[in-house]
Amino acid sequence: MISARPVTAAAGATADGYRGLSLWWDTLPEPAVRAPLPGDRDADVCIVGAGYTGLWTAYYLLAADPTLRVIVLEREVAGFGASGRNGGWCSALFPTGLAALATSAGGGQVGRTAAIAMQHAMQDTVNEVGVVARTEGLDIGWAKGGTVVLARSPLQLERARAEIAEWRSWGFGPEDQRLIGASEAAELVGATDVLGATVTPHCAAIHPARLVRGLAASVETRGGVIYEGSAAVSIEPGIVRTQHGSVRAPFVVRATEGYTAGLPGQRRDLAPVYSLMLATEPLPQHVWDEIGLRRRETFSDGRHLIIYGQRTADDRLAFGGRGAPYHFGSAIDADFDRDCGVHRELWRVLTELFPVAARYSVTHRWGGPLGVPRDWFASCGLDRASGLAWAGGYVGDGVGTSNLAGRTLTDLILDRTSDVVQLPWVGHRSRRWEPEPLRWLGINAGLAVMTSADGVEERTGRPARRAVWMQRLIGGH
Predict the structure, then answer these.
(1) Contact 400, 200 (CB under 8 A)
(2) In sequence order, what are the residues at sequence separation of 6 or more whose Cβ sits closer than 8 angstroms to the Cβ of residue 151?
(3) What does the pLDDT look like over 147-176, one tens digit per residue?
(4) Which DSSP category does 111 fall into?
(5) Do 71 and 224 contact (CB within 8 A), yes or no?
(6) Which of 34, 63, 119, 284 is deepest in the core (most CB within 10 A)?
(7) Looking at the predicted structure, is the pLDDT value of residue 477 above 50?
(8) What distances in angstroms separate CA 454 from CA 329, 342, 353, 466, one per listed residue?
(9) What are 98-136's pLDDT values in tens digits?
């Protein structure tokens, strides 16, 4: 089991002890651990968190102005958190629906235009990640096969039709999202009970840990400095304090996502909710002839409790889902990364989708926390008066969104006018989560409701109204 305590290894020591974090970490070339902050330092920009958000921000800042002094502080090692443990979907998904985006932007035609611009920006972001990976020579297993969301019951098919109608009402055509029939869907993803599917091209399967570790190396090549094993004790205007010293900078970026609750005064800003995954051994070609995913499409289905999967570059099935409990007081612990009951259920669902997979072994089980704002609305922004910037609350859709965050924060910090700084998530402030025990009761009740909704629909064949009620309550889609 991997310790959640900060590392204290000297520079040049290997990070083999972190391989158990995920399949992705276990299949990395041998990485080195960077030295901690050696004492007080000055910088132009100090970034707290060496995951996707922090590293993309550092990358674009240094690309825009190589003379900037950029310091990135990381409690553990670069990519320790969700950036090195996620499902490997570089998608155009944003956790908030278009209607909510439009409302946040003022409603009416202005709000509608802003919401559509946000979605186009997300779609462009998928390609941007691929361009950077190629430019920087990052071997991330990039495969832009899109996403197939299967409809495996009449109710799921009905919701799929409604989803496509919603996309059309916003002006998005079949080139962005389309509904396909049972035979075409089964040809793409050979799962059981397929009645149809929605298909979008705006997603790439990647090796997420190779992306985050490669991005860290690119930041250093451009002149940025990353200090690992350097936990932020406090983030204040103009200064970040750690146990090894302080960094003073006119701009400070909080890029801590699911670990934000551990910072003083921010326990209720983002709730750390766990998502768990497993991966099989590499599967032989005749199995893939049955399963499909020939272009390494990412896949899900229309149930309420989210599942997600991909075919990895080395021919494994990597599969995950929600369902792990939220822990009282926004607690985070390495012991929460694995839950026998949740992993058992994931395996049941995966082998229900693809019975042939049951003949093969599971080689990796893992998990980790993601950041969930109270209204399910990701955001980024800069308070220019204090110099404090932030980005996060991706609700598990951060692989692509963090890239957009990095470019947006760069333009905000450098005070550059651009289309991205006008998007409706910029400057959004989510209300805080309720204090305990209300937070614990509410989040876990929501998980229970979504789980039971799927069971109700499977038994009765009728829509579970409790799921619609819960979605409205949490402020999501």
Answers:
(1) no
(2) 157, 159, 160, 185, 194, 195, 196, 197, 198, 301, 302
(3) 999 999 999 999 999 999 999 999 999 999
(4) H
(5) yes
(6) 34
(7) no
(8) 28, 16, 15, 10
(9) 999 999 999 999 999 999 999 999 999 999 999 999 999
Residue 468 predicted with pLDDT over 70: no
Please name the residue that has the structure tokens 């705006």: 202
* Token couple for 130: 């691929």
Residue 46 forms beta bridges with which residues? 71, 252
Distance CA 150, CA 160 (A): 9
CA distance 443 to 433: 10
CA distance 149 to 47: 36
Q: What type of residue is 29?
A: P
Residue pair 258/368 in contact by the 8 Å Cβ criterion: yes
Structure-token pair, residue 76 = 């553990």
- pTM, whole model, 2 decimals? 0.94
State both tokens at 347.
């395996």
Spell out the residues 6+ positions from residue 13 whose beta carbon is closer than 8 angstroms to its own: 32, 33
Tokens for 160? 């799929």
H/E stretch holding 286: helix 285-291
As a residue count, the chain comes to 477
Assign 196 to helix, strand or coil. strand
For every residue of 125-185, DSSP letters joined together read HHHHHHHHHHHHT-----B---EEEEE-SHHHHHHHHHHHHHHHHTT--TTT-EEEEHHHH
- At which residue do the structure tokens 């990519």 appear? 79
